[in-house]
Amino acid sequence: MYNYLFGPVQTVRGNAGNQAGLYDAEDIVSAVFRAELSAKKLLGKDKADSGKQEGNFMLGKGTHDPGLNPNAYPMTDETPYPSAVQISISDMVLGTFELPDDPADHRGILSWHAQKKDRHLHEAGSYGYLISAPISVDVLKQAQGSSGLVIQLRVSDALPGGLAIYGEQFGRYPLDPSISFVLK
């Protein structure tokens, strides 16, 4: 896991989990987990062992990995980079959601505005998809009776896409991952 710009984006490979606060399941009519999520392609600059770009690739020599450039973050194009995330509450699966790409363009307006003033681009224009996972009252009651409400986001190693989790200052939607409750 690593963060950009003091933490507004979390990129995950494998499993991640965060714990939420307390609630009384008897007072809840319905609930939904919402988050802005996308696939996340690891670029050469993101990998510790990626090496350096050698030779002048413009002249057909050396290595060519445009992702090694410290300002690299390719804009959305016709080659998608898909992933999928399984969302669970206390080991009870809410659903698996397709993440069609690791998009970046003008729709990632918050990512553009959150750029540090250091003459580098940090995932400029990147954004995700607004994912809503309904949570049944039965799941909430079971979670309350066990270890509490633990949200788990899992990505399969079978897909290359990884996972980016956006916060309210980065991406397209100004929200942190959250659970909304409708109370009686």
Would you summarize the structure shown here?
This protein has 184 residues and is mainly beta. The protein has two helices and ten strands.
Characterization of the model:
- The protein has 2 helices and 10 strands; from the N terminus they run E-E-E-E-E-E-H-E-H-E-E-E.
- About 10% of the residues lie in helices and about 35% in strands.
- Strands 1, 2, 4, 7, 9 and 10 form a 6-stranded antiparallel sheet that branches. It has a 4-stranded antiparallel sheet with strand order 3-8-5-6.
- The longest helix has 9 residues, at about 135-145.
- It has one domain (about 1-45, about 75-184): Jelly Rolls, CATH 2.60.120.
- The termini are far apart.
- Mean pLDDT is about 80; it is low at about 1-20.
- With about 180 residues, it is mainly beta.
- It is elongated and about 70 Å long.
- It has helices spanning about 110-115, 135-145; strands at about 1-5, 10, 15-20, 30-40, 85-90, 90-100, 130-135, 150-155, 165, 180-184.
